[in-house]
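Our platform keeps sequence and structure together, in a single record for each protein. Because each token names a local backbone shape, the row as a whole describes the fold. One such record is reproduced below, unchanged from the form in which we store it:
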Amino acid sequence: MIENLSSSQSEWLTKQLNQINDSGIKNFSKLRLESSQRDFYRFFFLNSSSVILMVVPDGIEESVSSFTEKSKIFKKNGVNVPTIYSENEALGLILVEDFGDELYQFNLSNEKADLYYDLAINELIKIQSLKLDKNIFSYFDDNLLLYNWSLFEKFFINNFLENKIHNQSLEILKESYEKISLNLLDQPKVICHFDYECRNLIFNENKTGVLDFQDALIGPIGLDLASLFKDLYFFWPKEKILTWYENYQKKIEKKLNLKVSITKLIEYIDYCSIQRQFRILGKLSKVYLDLNRTNRITDFPVLLNYMISTSEAYEELKPISETLLPLKEVLNERIAKIN
């Protein structure tokens, strides 16, 4: 069985796998490493079916209960999330339905894009239609925004870039970040997946399967749209993206009874996307420094370039572009040292 599991975990896992499928275990394989501290494995049974194991280590913010509780709510409201077969909070183990391998990350193409994004919008609107239950979902509020900034400042600027930025420049960035935060807090509030990007979406039986939703919260409407359309792994013509925005706009007017102009929708998405890059740079720097995971470091220049180019389009955010531009060379030198 899996080497780094305890005897209690292995015993529970063997028992649950046999209950799910009594044909016997053929083999298993470890799945991709991401920014999460969780590990994932696919177990194959002798009858060719399979199941996914999620291992949640002790001492991290992510929990089994958060995943299972939100899964039930999503499932009840028709969101296409995997069925949970078994879970054990104390052992940090969850066995879930295997949605296959057709992740958006590796399968988006010009031919599939319109279909994939239309299906993703459909699932997203189901999520956004959920009741804003503060007993289940926390708020994307000032505290979280400040925490995201602290991640960026401490782990990306101070540690990863070894504090090679003037105090005045850092203060300019913080002032601009505060303006972004005000925009986000002023947006219409919906349930947000919080990481609705191509790494967490999968084409499953002609629908979008939704993964990694344990951090879902109440937040600005542009948050998940920024994850979906500004994930920085795919670059589509502006005209094509605009048709997807218009598609979304029509659907929320009908499904959510919410009217938002295209201009305002684009602003919502852009502001959320810049804030998202602040958060991701901080989070991934922390993962690298804490766990020595280097697999996402090559994304850093793309994230920085995106922040520079997007902030240029808004007068109040141009200081972000001007401040980050000199950091490109510093960042490339730092990455070269690691590689």
About this structure: The longest helix spans residues 262-291. The first strand starts at residue 25 and ends at 30. Residues 144 and 150 are 10 Å apart (CA to CA). The radius of gyration is 21 Å.
